[in-house]
Amino acid sequence: MPRSSGWGSSIRPRSSMSGSDARRRNRGAAGIAALAALVGCLSGAFGAPQKAAAPAAIPDAGFASGWARSGPLRTFTGQDLFNQIDGGAELFLEFGFVRLRLQAYARGRAELTLDAYEMESPASALGIYLMKMGRETPFPEIAARNSSEEVQLTILKGRYFVQVDNLGEEPASRAEAAALANAFLAGVEDEPAETPLRALPAEGLAPGSERLIRGPYGLQPYFTFGEGDILSLGGRTFGALAQYRMPDGTAFTRLIVPYPDAAAAAAALTHLGANLDPYLKVTGERPDGFDFVDHQSKPGRVALAGAVLDIRFNCGRY
Asked: Mean pLDDT for the chain?
């Protein structure tokens, strides 16, 4: 099906609305303007590459009694990551992958493997962690944010995303796995992550649903707006996404993208409208964006305010 050159050029927007509709639209416009002001205060260079620090040291075997290194340290950089991750390297590269160092340790038939992913910024590491953590189930003995189970520890600290795998023929103890993790984490700087997550409104936000988006691979699990880098993120701009359940029974996904400036945001809106997936039907156009329905007839909305795109989709009731 050919793509439209505009935002549903064959569909005319509604020419009138009820008083209650107008009030809702006015409240929405005021909310978007306030959001744009907030993001403007928070933004600068969300997740911009930061000055490279010396890589954190890989632990020796002394993290617990009886353990020894098993095999050499393996290092992967850039596209080499495809040689280690089957089908998942694209997401790491999109978020800003620097290097992976992998070291195995053994004690008899027990084996622990440390996978230390260094990302270009703390925001990049946080983006990967949020995508990989599942339902966050932390082990309190680990000295950093984590979501863990007996066979795998998933950890975030500074610009590092870390996994410790406990997959030997004989399982290592939870204490030994945590000791390995903590031995590595002791050498990692605890850098704060500056991201647009703080711009997500608190009312109705489903805890644990927050995600960072930096390109098509991160966006794909949640919605398809079109092919390629449809939101013009360019591997540099971060968006913040979360699920919402509002007190009035409505539910939706909200994606907030703060661009470097108003011109970049306006260009992103134009690109989105001109390349929208043909299964999304535009139902109304406005100077600041457009409304649409998806293939399940669920409504959505795209609104521009200053340097911010505020997008709602998968709208319905719960």
From this structure: 87
Say if pTM beats, i.e. exceeds, 0.70. yes
Q: What is the DSSP secondary-structure string of the chain?
A: -PPPSSSSTTSPPPS---HHHHHHHHHHHHHHHHHHHHHHHH-SSTT---PPPPPPPPP-GGGSTT-EEEEEEEEEEGGGGGGTSSS-HHHHHHH-EEEEEEEEEEETTEEEEEEEEEESSHHHHHHHHHHH--S----TTSSSEEEEETTEEEEEETTEEEEEEE-SSSPPPHHHHHHHHHHHHTTS--PPP--GGGGS-STTB-TT--EEE-SHHHHTTT---SSSSTT--TTT--EEEEEEE-TTSEEEEEEEEE-SSHHHHHHHHHHHHHT--TTSEEEEEETTEEEEE-TT--EEEEEEETTEEEEEEEEEE-
How far from the centroid of its chain's Cα atoms is residue 83's Cα? 23
Express each pLDDT in 68-123 by its tens digit: 999 999 999 999 999 998 778 999 999 999 999 999 999 999 999 999 999 999 99
The total of other beta-carbon atoms located within 10 Å of residue 192's CB is 9
- Lowest mean pLDDT of 43-52, 146-155, 197-206, name the range: 43-52
Give the Å distances, CA to CA, from 245 to 58, 84, 90, 207: 43, 39, 31, 10
- Could you read off the pLDDT of 193-252 as tens digits, one per residue? 999 999 999 999 999 999 999 999 999 999 999 999 999 999 999 999 999 999 999 999
For the chain, which domains are there?
Answer: 29-46+195-317 (no CATH), 65-185 (3.40.1000.70)
Q: What is the pLDDT of residue 151?
A: 97
> Distance of CA 172 to CAs 108, 111, 115, 165, 302, Å?
10, 7, 16, 10, 50
pLDDT > 60? residue 21: no
